[in-house]
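User: Predict the structure for this protein chain, please.
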Amino acid sequence: MKLYSFFRSSTSHRLRIALNLKGIATDYVTVDLRVDEQQQDHFKAVNPQQLVPALDTGDKVMIQSPAIIEWLEEKHPTPALLPAGTDDRAHVRALAAMVGCDIHPLNNRRVLQTLRKQFGANEDAVNAWCATWISSGFDAYEALIAADAQRGRFSFGDTPTLADVYLIPQVESAHRFKMDLTKWPLIMAVEKACMELEAFQKAAPGQQPDAA
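Assistant: Here is the predicted structure, written as structure tokens:
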């Protein structure tokens, strides 16, 4: 399989984590967002939406990280990224959606480039924008995991789930935007637990071939 990825892309990062947790190796194909390679014709032929990640399974090209990760969960159910109980699965999916639907879309590259180019935002303003939405989302995330008396070391339970797959790339982004994360001690504890695992370490932006 070929993984079309950019080292600093949060959506690529979450898919790399999921692939690593599932033990699935891929060939890494860099799509350099720094030079807008995603807008070039050769990648548009891979993904007409011109976004990363994309996963070429050999049979088809899959796009949109939520869809790909759900496909991985169905195709390779062990180890599971979702708990067994229906209510618990909904809870984990909700935590993941808080990041994937409510935090990340307001902080992705297209939005930030629009702020810079169309609205004249400088880097301080961009960082403040990002901090606003990350803070709002992390406040809610922290409250939800604090309320879970059976939580364990991760966002849910004692093994990584879909929630952690989404959370850790967003924490990485928060570090990049120079945020003080000490106000969310439970999220920081989850980050520590995750980063003790090779699957998360190998997926980190700085470990990718295009990070140099």
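The first strand starts at residue 2 and ends at 5.
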